[in-house]
Amino acid sequence: MKFFDWIKDFFGVEKSMIFINQNALASNEALVAIKDFALCSAINLIAGVLSKCEFKTYLNGIEVKGDEYYLWNIEPNRNQNSTQFIQEFISKLLYYNECLILDINGQLIIADDFTQTEYAVLENTFTNVTRGTMKFDKTFKMSEVLYFKYSNNDVQRLLSELMNGYNNLLKMAIGKFKRSGGRKGILDIDATASGDKNFQQRFDDLMNNRFKTYFEAENAVLPLHRGFNYNEQNGEGSKKSTSDMVDISAIVKEELDRAAQAFKIPTSLLRGDIADVEKITDNFLTFCIDPLSDMVGEEINRKRYGKSAFLKGSYVKADTTCIKHIDIFSISESFDKLIASGGYSIDDLRQKAGDSPLNKEWSKKHWITKNYSDVQDMKGGEK
Question: Which residues are within 8 A (CB) of 7 and not within 5 positions of it... i.e. 6 or more apart?
Answer without folding.
Answer: 13
